[in-house]
Amino acid sequence: MATSIHRSGVNIVLVIVLVFLTGCSTLQTTADKTAVLRNRIADYMDARMKDDKERSYAFFSRESKIRIPRGKYMSIPQTIAYVSYAIDTIDIAENANEATVTVKIDIKIMTFVFKGITQTQQWLWENGTWCIDIKPVAGLPGSFKKKK
Question: Quick one: how far is CA 92 from the chain centroid?
Answer without folding.
Answer: 9
